[in-house]
Every structure is written in C-alpha cells, then in structure tokens.
Amino acid sequence: MLFPYLDGAVLAARAIGTWARAAGFAPDDVHVIDDAYVDGRENPVTCARVQGAADALFAAGGPAVEHVLLAFCGHGLTDENLASICWLFSDSVAAKYRVVAERFCGELLLRGVARITLISDACRDFPPRLDVLRLDPIRGVVLNGTPADSPLMDRLAACQDGAKGYMVFADQVPGKCIFSGVVTDALWGLEATAIADGVITTASLGACVLRRTTERAREYGLKLFPDCSVAPVPAILHRVAQPPAVPDDLQPWPPAGAGTAAAGAAPAPHGEAAAPPPPATVDIAKMLRTLVRDADDVTAAPTMKFASGLPRRMTRRFRALAMTVPEARANLVVRAARRVLSSAAAVLTRVSGTGWRVDAPGPQHAVLVEFNDGTVAPAVVGRDLLVSLLHRSGGTVHLAYATRSASWDRRRATDLIGRFASGSLGRDALPHLVAHLSHSGKPDPVVTVLTAYLLRADADIAGIRRLAARHAQAHGWIPFDVALLGAMPVERSEAHGMVAHVPTVAAASRPAPDGWPAAWCAATPAVHAPVGGLCPWLGRGWDYVCDPRPESRVLVDGLEVYASEIERTGFTVFRRGLGKALARTWRLDGK
C-alpha cells in the first residue's frame, strides 16, 4: 500500500482559508499551510512551518485570540478509544513522528484562547491497528503562557474512533475529501441546514455536518460517520444576512457512479493546485512492518467477546476473594501470575493461589505483575482497595478496583471498563463517568483515569485538576495519568516518591452541561498528593511521555526511551524482557 498524495486535502484547506477571509477574519489571522508545489519545488508541511504560523498568530504584544478555528486535512490516525486523533505532516513517516491533536490544541490554549473549533479531516487508509504505530508522538507546536479559565472545545472529526475517512475523485480532476467538502459547503452557506435564525453557529454547523456527511458518502456507495461534538454555548461563525460571495473556483463534487472511486486518497494529484508528487513515493506498508508490532495476529472479535464478559468476571473475582479471604488480607488478585515485584519499602505476602497482600508505608504502592507468558503489567495497590488484573493470551491485561462494599459502584465501574476494553468508550460516556465519580465515596481509580483522558480530549485541564483534587481527598493519592494529563507540577520526595501539586481550581464560570452533576463545576482546593504508579496506566498515556512540557519532565524522566515499545491500546503492558529491564530500573524485586 502506498502513502498517496492527497490533492483534495490541499484544495480543502485553501477553501476553508478563502472562506475565513471572505467571512471577515483579518488577513493576518488566516494561515493556510499546504504541501502543494511552489515553482516546481516541494513545499512540505512541517513542524517548522506550522510553528512559524503559530508564532505569527500569537505574536508578542498582539491582541488576545479568543477563538481559533483549526482545520487539518490530510492523513491521520484515529484511535479505537478515548477520542484520540493524530495527524501526519508531509515528513511524518520519513522523520518518524506524529502530531497528537489534543497536545497541539493544548499548546494553543496556553496563549489564553477561550475556544477552539477543531475540524479534523484525517483520512484512514491504513491497517486498523495503528494505535501501536511507532511514530514519536509530539505536540507539533510549542507555545507558552497562561490558559484561559474553562476553555470551550468544538470537535468536528471526519470519522469516529477506529473508522475511515474518504476522498472521492474522477478522471483528470482533483479529489475531493468528503468530510471537509461538506464542511466547506456548509460554511459558504450552500447547506441550508447549517443556517439557524440567519446565522451559522458552531452548533448548527456540527448538526449539519453530522447528517450531511453520511448522506454525501452514501451517494458514492460509502459509509462515513463523523464525530461532531460542540460545546454547549454556541459561537457565531458568520451572519448569512451578509453572506460572502461563493468563489467561482469552489471545487465541485465529482459525479457519483462510474468513474468515481473512493480509496482514502487519489492515486496521483491533478491540476495546478496539486503539482506532481515527489518522485520517491513512500511505501507505507514496508514502513509499517518496522513500526507496528503484532499487527497480523490482532482481530477485533476475540477482544469484543472477552470484554463483553468483563463486568461479570470482575464481580465474580471480587466475590471469590471475599469468600476465600474473610480477614480481608489480600489487596491484589491475579490469576496466571508468575510473581509480583515491589520495592524494598513494601512487605509482600502471598496469601492464596491468586491473592497477595502488599503493605507499604504510604496510601498506595506501585508493583509489577509478571504473568506466566512473560508479559508484565504495572498496577497500584491501595491500602483500602482491592485491585484485580485479568490477563488473556496474547498479552492483553485489564485492571479494575473495588472496595469491599458498594456493590453497585463496582458493577458500574466494571461496566465502564468493559466499554473501554471493547473499544466503545467515547466522549458520549463522559456524563456517565462523571456521575459515577460524583456519587462514589471512594471513586474507582481506573474510572478516574478514563475520565481524565476524555476530559483532555475536550481540552478541559481545569476538569482534570478538579478530578485530581477529589481523588486525592478520597484516596490520599492520584493516578500517574491524571497528574500527567492535568499538567501538574511534580517533584520527587524521599518519603513519598513523586508528589503532584494540584492547583486551586475556581468554580466553573458556566453551569454544568446537561446530564452532568451540578457539583462537578464546584471549586476545588489546592492539594499535594503522591502520584500512584511509575508510568502511565493506559497505553495511550505514553503519547504524553515524549516531548513533555517542563512541568511534566520529572514525572516522565527516563520513560521516553521505552515509549516506542508500548502498544497504545488498552492498559499498559510490557513485553517479555522490557518488564524485567524496568524492574531493575525501578529497583523492584519479587516473589
């Protein structure tokens, strides 16, 4: 499979830029960066070019930027879970990097941006297991400053988690990306349903694009289901009473039927806007063979089948523990484990065939569990929590916590973890996650972690910090991933290991969204709490280990050398040999 040139992406980006200028955006505030040839020479989209545009937009002494409309059209990756998007710039494969969209947006928010409207038309013409692609995950742009209070995030993405986006084309004409084509038509006022009361707002645009993308794809015999989520407070994009004139050169839609294809990209560029591709086309399949681990033996069906029984398995495991260890001695339950490794500060006792007791000075203690097949998984044992690890052949591990009471909390938590394990936990689950945490006296740490990732996809750093403060008040510590995603200062303490400083968070300036507990938006105090774990709990967290911001350097110090070895799907699992190396690095010993 070749890595094709997306001529339609160039035209889509230019069309959005042309609309922005016509709609009243100041010319200096509109930056279009594409990889069309200039005077017969290559002009790739690189981090350096994007950084230059960002520096110009946020020039020192310039006016504050309240609303950024950020559009990406091109190759990209959409994860199976947790609303993750990565973008590939022109030199990404050759330079072995990918841009994590949430981290890119997070940099923009550091300049006080109050709202980002993200349009991501990242086509997926790749193998399905690209969450393990060994391209270095980076921010793509570096900015500094102070984030605005409770910024808003609109997200219009071409495809839902784990799905494909498409570009259609006909002979001798440039391709047209379906999703960004619909977005462009809507912005120019060519889609009547995008207009509400004489204006196009983020809400009306999202609703129109969600419906019309599916309908437009159907005209070409395709199935395309975008992910369109907008902030509850709509923003006006422009007023139709003074509509900009539609340009004569707005790219038409190719005719449906004969002569039209859909393969994620055109086989070759056409026309002046997209000059001939580079002579040496990258063979993406060959590259992937060196970047992807175990891609051939992964199938979705066994994972779905295993995950569907996860709540029942977890509940049965905890019930068996209570029956066989009535003295509540075990706080770690693992089947098919060869040994458990902990630091010298902990007393590790095996109390049954599947149960261990870990006693440590603090409220939590990090351990490694080595399974019979040689794979190793990290876990955090809490003083007053039961933690269970479920392991299946192939190296997949699932992690869950429970107290010895509150059975409905346990069931609710394992239901949510089951959705994550089956690849179906998206942003629509946020109200359920928040409700569970708000009504739990002892919130499940895994649910806390899952919630943090979805909040980060919405650029809600304040929400992550509220989450951290409440978890610290309930448990006396916060999970590693929450400290990492919440951009919290971390320092090393001889007595407590790594300690996160959770800043004070003021009450939200807007009411809670529909379906969210009102208490979620309340203020939280500053908290200092130990960090639970020595690395990210989820594979996805390793995308934040490389290219860290200064406040996260202590937290991730030394981990970046292992990041390319970790699969991004599910919970963190170390393959044979890597777990032993990390045990030596962390000075963990086992029995």
TrEMBL record:
Domain of life here?
Answer: Bacteria
Q: Where is this region: Disordered?
A: 246-276
The Low complexity compositionally biased stretches are 256-274
Q: What is this protein called?
A: Caspase family protein
